[in-house]
Amino acid sequence: MSVQVRPTYEPLNELTVLDVVKPLDFFDASEQNQLHVREIGDGNLNLVFHIESATSKKALIVKQALPYAKVVGESWPLTLDRARIESDALLKEAESVPHLVPKVLFSDSALAVTVMEDLSDHVILRKGLIEGQIYPQLAEDIGTFAAKTAFYSSDFYLHPFEKKEQVRKFSNPELCKITEDLVFTDPFFNIETNDFPAELQPDVDRIWNDKELLKEVAQLRLAFLTKAEVLLHGDLHSGSIFVKSDSTKVIDPEFAFYGPAGFDIAHFIANLALNHLSQNAHAKEPFHRDSIQSYLLQTIEKTWETYRETFTQLWNEKATDPFAKTEGVLESFLQKTFQEAIGFAGCEIIRRTIGLAHVADLDSISKREVELFYKKTALELGAKLIKNQRKLTNITELTDWIRGA
Ligand code: SR1
Ligand code: MG
């Protein structure tokens, strides 16, 4: 009788990762001894190995969660369960948008490992945008991703028992706590982990002392804490999206959980808005700046329109909610989602400017005074979105504000 011993967790290295890959038979026997391994993780939290056959050039990715946040070190312990959440979220997303997520080939919750399709022919969207690249399919793909994953995970579609089972499965308290702190709390108080240049102190003080703003943030934070509306990616910024001209892949759903419907789309829009601001510094010529900025604004508009249209179509064809045909119910859900998204986007813009985790779009501006100018502008834009979220009814009003920032 053979006894199967469950692997115990150990951080992988460029040698031991092969013990995970070899039994998968992804590579032919003749290739097994010529695999080239590189650790390529540049995110805040995980190890990522790229494993390629020297002969056939076939490749795959092994992602392993570390028991702490890599960005800070071992002093910040972090659950390994996020690896299970990530692979389960990728599999769930693949049920409705298989073309928009990497294929999962294997996962092991004890090792906190997910093995997936290699996407080295894509680039991280943030990098591509900073370089001034344009991705024609991006808006439709992200609008579709957000709408389909939202609708199919919601009470509008699922039986209440199934919905509650999914909420339980995607309970993700530790990763949600990171967002609760880093997005919705710390940037609005004088907390040590905030990170901003001293010259911004007067602008930051203005935020910390703005009672109207803080009241709105408290409500957005409560919505994030309590509204289990749809399964979210949970961290849909432009570093969580791989692109090439004809393909979009949403990666890294380790922050997935059931939350308020507008949250994912808000983070995507906020990161495009930050890139829009930064193009004033990055673009080499005015003509190129104008064209990338107008592309970014069109992308924001088309993403929301695609979300709205796709969600509406699914609602009309597939909703099981007893009030689905009642006049105004869908419209009021979409309006509430839109307005909340504007508030969430404002929080994301502010935290990426003065909180712990920044974005390269602003941080890589080489001239100090230019960087400071656009960071101040980002803070003003973020505060405006949070305070005026309920005044907006149309996506072009939002893009007008971003254009005018
Ligand atoms: C400690 S994690 C910092 C940030 O990186 C992730 O991608 C999330 O955005 C998180 O807030
Ligand atoms: Mg990530």
From TrEMBL:
Substrate binds at residues 235, 351. It holds the Pfam family APH. One of its GO terms (molecular function) is S-methyl-5-thioribose kinase activity. Pathway: Amino-acid biosynthesis; L-methionine biosynthesis via salvage pathway; S-methyl-5-thio-alpha-D-ribose 1-phosphate from S-methyl-5'-thioadenosine (hydrolase route): step 2/2. Keywords: Amino-acid biosynthesis, ATP-binding, Kinase, Methionine biosynthesis, Nucleotide-binding, Transferase. It catalyses: 5-(methylsulfanyl)-D-ribose + ATP = 5-(methylsulfanyl)-alpha-D-ribose 1-phosphate + ADP + H(+). It is an enzyme of class 2 (transferase). ATP binds at residues 46, 63, 117-119, 252-254. Residues 37-271 form the Aminoglycoside phosphotransferase domain. Its EC number is 2.7.1.100. It comes from the Bacteria. Belongs to the methylthioribose kinase family. Catalyzes the phosphorylation of methylthioribose into methylthioribose-1-phosphate. Homodimer. HAMAP family: Salvage_MtnK. This is Methylthioribose kinase. It comes from Fictibacillus halophilus.
